[in-house]
Design brief:
The chain is of the alpha/beta class. The protein has one domain. The chain has a four-stranded mixed β-sheet. The longest helix is centred in the first third of the chain and has 16 residues. One of its GO terms (biological process) is tRNA N1-guanine methylation. This is SAM-dependent methyltransferase TRM5/TYW2-type domain-containing protein. Keywords: Cytoplasm, Methyltransferase, S-adenosyl-L-methionine, Transferase, tRNA processing. One of its GO terms (molecular function) is tRNA methyltransferase activity.
Amino acid sequence: YDVFAGVGPFSIPAAKRRCAVLANDLNPESYKWLEHNAKLNKVEAFISAFNKDGSDFIKEEVKNHILQHKGEKRSHVVMNLPAIAVTFLPAFKHLFTTDQVKQIKTLPLIHVYCFVKGEGDCKEMAATLVEDQLNCSISEAVDEVFFVRNVAPNKNMMRVSFQLTESMVQGAKRPLELETDVKENKAKKIK
C-alpha cells in the first residue's frame, strides 16, 4: 500500500516484482502520471491507483483490502511524504474492531518517513514523532529506524518502520494518556 504514491517511485518497482499494489495520491496530476507509468512499465495489472486523501485511502481501501485478504501475506504500507506523513498515522487508530482483528493473520509493516529537527538522537526523535501521533509506544513493534539523509543543518529525513499491532488499530492509549484522562474526568466532575 502506497499512501502518497506520487508518480510511482515505490509502487512501480514493487509491481514489477509482481506484488499487488494499491497506490494513492491526492494530486490529480500525480495520479494521472502514476497510471501512465504503470502502463508504460507494463504493470497495470498489478497496480490499483486511487486519487484520495491519505486518511480516506487508509480507512477505506487499505482496510477493505486487508479484511478481504485476511492478512495472509505480509504487507507493507509506505508513507513517503516526510513533511506531514506522521500526521496521517491516527487513521490507523480504531481501524478494525476486535472481531475483525481476530480474522487478520498479519497486520502490515508501516514505513513512515519524517523530518526531525534539532540536535540529539535522530532515531529517538523520529520514534517519538510516531508515538505521539499513535498515542502508544512502538518500542516493541519497531523493525527499524533508518537515517535516510541530511536535508539541511540540524534537519534529517528518517524512516520509521514498525509492525502495526492490535493495540494500535484498536486505539489503545499509553499509560500517560490513561492517567491524564482519569484526571480530566475527575476535574470535570468537580466542576
